[in-house]
Amino acid sequence: MQVLESRQVVREVSSPEGTLTIVADVSFGVERGESLAIVGPSGSGKSTLLAMLAGLDLPTRGTVLLNGVDLSTLDEDGRARLRAGHVGFVFQSFHLVPALTALENVMLPLELAGSERATERAREALERVGLAPRARHYPRQLSGGEQQRVAIARALVARPDVLFADEPTGNLDSVTGARIADLLFDLNREFGTTLVLVTHEIALARRCGRMLTLDAGRLVADTRVAA
Amino acid sequence: MKRLLRYAFVAFARDARSGELAVLFGALVVAVAALTAVGFFTSRISQAIRLQAAEVLAADLRLESGRAPADAYVAEARARGLAVARLTSFPSVVYAGPTSQLATVLAADGAYPLRGALRIADVPYGPGRPAIGSPRPGEAWADSRLLARLAVPVGGTLQVGALALRVTAVLDYRPDQGSGLADLAPTVLIAAADLAPSRLLGPGSRATWIVLFAGPADAVAAFEAWLRPRKSAAERLVDAGESSEQMKSATERSGRFLNLAALVTVMLAAVAVAMAARRYASRRLDLVALLKSLGASQGFVLGVTAIELALVALAGAAVGTLLGFGAETGLAWLVRSLLKGVLPAPSLTPAWLGLGTAIIMLAGFALPPLLELRRVPPARVLRHDLAPPPLRYGAPYVAAALALALLLYALVRDPRLVGYAVGGLAVSALVLGVAGLGLVRATGALRGGAGLAWRYGLANVARRGRESVVQVVAVGLSLTVLLLLAIVRNDLLDEWQRSLPAGAPNHFLINIPPAEADSLRAYLVQHGVAEPVLSPWVRARLVSVNGQPMQARMPKSDRGRAFAEREQNLSWSATLPPDNRVVDGAWWTSPDAAHPQVSVATEFQEELGLKVGDQLGFDVAGESVVATIANVRKVRWDGFRPNFFLLFAPGVLDASTGTYMTSVHLDAAQRPALAGLVREHPSVTVVDVESLLAEVRSIMDRAAVAVEYVFGFTLVAGLAVLFAAIQSTRDERRYESAILRTLGASRRTVLYGVAAEFTALGLLSGVLAASAASAIGWLVATRLFGLHYSFDPVVWLGGMCGGALLVGVAGTLATRSVVETSPALSLREG
Ligand SMILES: Nc1ncnc2c1ncn2[C@@H]1O[C@H](COP(=O)(O)OP(=O)(O)OP(=O)(O)O)[C@@H](O)[C@H]1O
Ligand SMILES: [Mg+2]
Predict the structure, then answer these.
(1) Is B198 buried (19+), middle (13-18) or exposed (0-12) by CB count in 10 A?
(2) Closest chain A residue to the Cα of B287, Cα to Cα
(3) Per DSSP, what are the bridge partners of residue A218?
(4) Residues B723, B269: contact at Cβ < 8 Å?
(5) What is the DSSP letter of B566?
């Protein structure tokens, strides 16, 4: 079964100049364990599409199925519950809670989902990204790359089915960015997590098994990359 | 649930640690502290003032009757733990050898007086000192006038009925001697045990039996409630509230000054709470969006918010109450001489009140914006500009304002005061809001003209629209309140205290025969007293209203009955006397003796249910006079000049004028001259109101100290609002200034822009605040305090310059750090 499916998804917003179509009629499916890159010029609707795939936002028309569940049939709390169990996020600007330590940040999704052994599991996840010694540090005491590794640990700690990443390396230098990318793909392989990432960087996109190209909200190419 | 609680506690601890809650918490603490400190200090002061008022009765409660009152009253009072004293008062001729004088004999038991103290002197009109106890059997204390008339020295003998009593002291002052001008005969105080042996009181004697009660306020009130329905109509019950017009007037006014200050402080703190909550909510937008993207439900966000607020409320109430209690205790210590040992009732009320205030304020003013957090779109984690739908909290704010008004009313119990204060501030808020909107529009249109800094600053005012309006309202309200209190503190209190200058009259001279008016005047001037103004003085009884005899329309209240049954002191005047203000009808300009006109004081008019145009029938020394009510006067009784419930137009009573009266100021050195005066003018009665004057002055002083103190709290509350208002746009500014500086704007340009923006806000708020404060000040002065109010240009200048300067400088300083941070850092932190 496909873990993620987008059927004729359209997103419109109203603006002073009339209705604007940001994402137009996008359909595709993603297999479990696949890694998918969404590329395209700035403003082409990548982040908007990602938000709809993750259930952060709803399409104006069309359907998004996550694990076979039609997201538009769920209310906001239903989608939140689905996210808590099945979705992880990594953002361009990390979005760690500044007042929480690295460990507490990683514990957050487990606590929200009411999982057992939150502290232990969070510690393991931090260890996996190589930051166990920094568990008690606050985000501002960490470098950008370290913050992003904490964010990755947080995204994966609940063993989600799909990991969404919006420009995960966008705020990092190329060396650090490459390390972060390595980590993402390692984990993708290790846990069989489906990876959906939005990126500008063609090099990063090429490391994915598949590449969707958006232009002005339309899906213009769906390329499979030979492993 | 456990998870929710745990997270909420963690979040609370975290927010508390990181200072996110500081402004909200601070505003709450100020509100609670102000309410508890001010509320309890006020109640303590008013308790002290009440005690002082009680001195005028020599008791908390006084029962007067033409017959010996039932012993059951005394038994009941004793059972309730009240102190009781009995007095019997009757007229009798007192002899000293061949000379005699009509006197009021006052037989008192050892407990008299229950409130206040007797003062005695060694020679007539000599300096007084506190007395210990009261006359023992065989002794008499006689007042100066009696001894001066009879030429009896201390140590001499007075014949009182069948007894020869030794005069052991001059009775200089007794607390209940009153200024009622009714006790015409001089007093001789004797022991109750001498009453029977004197054989003065036989059946049918004309005497007044008086029972005095005193005790804790609650017990007295309960006893009064018990006694009032049981006593007969002939028994007159007087409590401290109606002791003397002067005291009543002063007590009421001082209470109002205090309450007004307390009210506006609490309202200001509410504004601060609302502002702080807005900022707190806006600071949490990102966090909530993140939590939601990580799978938090709306209920979770709501629950966490509610629990966090509850914790803030608890902590704020606890700290605020402690602080308030501490401040109250400290102040009580500072003014301990004024409080005369009135201790706060040890109770949990302050804690409940504090918690209640905290909950109302947070639920009403902080919860609405925080509730909106539930609606933050989770996609905000990807697109920072996605805000929740605009806040709509008109209804909750109105509800909260109402709840607050009720709370304040419960504390103050003065509907007119609460009405004026709440209404005045509500109207001010509205005007400020409209003006703020106007400013936003105007600056939007204006931005083409000025230099870069101003253009950027003004553009910001316009662009931030909603936020700018909120800032104008908040800053404007806090300036309004501060200016209003400045008006109250400086102008109104001064004006009130000025009404009793050092040379205010402290003696009334009554019963001056017209033939002796000139010689008396000359005598006084000769002894260095300022030439007195003599008012005609007539005693008359009200017999009918609109032709209906008084018996047919007897008022229910004791006071009304006294007006209807007793002889009244009247006067006549061509001009409206000072301290009087016409509140209904018009003062006469060319009165016509053929159509007699009378002017009544509001107290008289209210108790008897009169209106302008009513016909009052009087019995003036056996002659019947019918006069039409031409106007109703509000009298300021605490001015200590002769004032009358009833004033006639000239021409009506001129023929009936038996005597004149006047009030003069006599210092201690001039007082002995009174002995000569009463010898030369034997019919003249001197009523000493020096003690009463001192009491009223001390009430004023207490009110002044207390208002001063409350002002401190208001200042803190005002600064909290200002701070919260400035902070509210800080985050946005950080981002903007980073962008501007990245674009190459110098630090200085950005800072000037910020200064321009805040100065414009401060100027507008200041001008509006000065208008609002003047308007409310005028309303409060004339309507509530009966004081004259003159517009004060200093308030305007202060409002304008102070507003612009304070807000401009404070805003710029507060934003400075934001402008100084490196743009890269600001942008990275988003
Ligand atoms: N809620 C909205 N209201 C108005 N316009 C929107 C909204 N959401 C997205 N847009 C617009 O839709 C377009 C696509 O935005 P989106 O953020 O999806 O682009 P993107 O491909 O992620 O671009 P970038 O690579 O720069 O991040 C942009 O022009 C954006 O301004
Ligand atoms: Mg994007």
Answers:
(1) middle
(2) A97
(3) A215
(4) no
(5) S
Alpha carbon A128 to chain centroid, angstroms:
19
Beta strands in B117-219, from DSSP E residues, in sequence order: 119-121, 129-130, 139-143, 157-160, 163-173, 187-191, 208-214
pTM above 0.90, yes or no: no
pLDDT value at B50 more than 80: no
Instruction: Note the pLDDT tens digit of each residue in B601-613.
Output: 988 888 888 899 9
CA–CA separation, B455 vs B760, rounded Å?
12
Closest chain B C-alpha to A3 CA, distance in angstroms: 18
Joined together, the tokens standing for residue B495 give: 């004006």
**Pair B243, B54: CB distance under 8 Å:** yes
How many CB atoms lie under 10 A from the CB of residue A25?
A: 15
B3 neighbourhood in chain A, CB within 8 Å: 111-112, 114
| CB distance A70 to A143 below 8 Å | no
Q: How confident is the model at residue A213 (pLDDT cuts 50, 70, 90)?
A: very high
pLDDT digits (tens, 9 = 90+) for B755-807: 877 887 888 888 888 888 888 888 888 777 777 777 778 777 877 888 888 88
Optimal mutation site among A48, A53, A57, A159, interface B, most CBs of chain B within 10 A: A57
Interface check for B509 against chain A (CB to CB < 8 A): the answer is: no
Pairing of strands B208-214, B236-239: unpaired
Tell me if A213 CB under 6 Å of ligand 1: no
Residue B427 has pLDDT above 70, yes or no: yes
Return the structure tokens found at B176.
């209940």
C-alpha distances (whole Å) from A110 to each of A116, A118, B147, B235, B622 are: 8, 6, 97, 80, 99
Can you tell me the distance from the alpha carbon of B226 to that of B763, in angstroms, rounded to the nearest whole number? 59
Residues 6+ apart with CB under 8 A from B502: none
What residue type is assigned to position B447 of the chain?
A: R
How far apart, in whole angstroms, are the C-alpha atoms of residue B282 and residue B384? 12
In total, chain B counts a number of residues equal to 830
Any atom of ligand 1 within 6 Å of the Cβ of A199? no
B52-70 pLDDT, tens digit each = 667 777 888 889 888 888 8
For the record, the structure tokens of B657 come out as 């004028």
Report residue B404's pLDDT band, with 50, 70 and 90 as the boundaries: confident
CA distance to A2, B199, B201, B580, B687, per residue, from B678 (Å) = 116, 30, 29, 31, 12
Q: What is the pLDDT of residues B657-678, one digit of tens each?
A: 678 888 888 887 888 888 788 7
| Nearest Cα residue to B268 out of B30, B34, B478, B27 | B478
Per the structure block, which two tokens stand in for B67?
Answer: 């017959």
Cα–Cα distance for residue pair B115/B49, rounded to 1 Å:
13
Q: Which two tokens stand for residue B655?
A: 């023929």
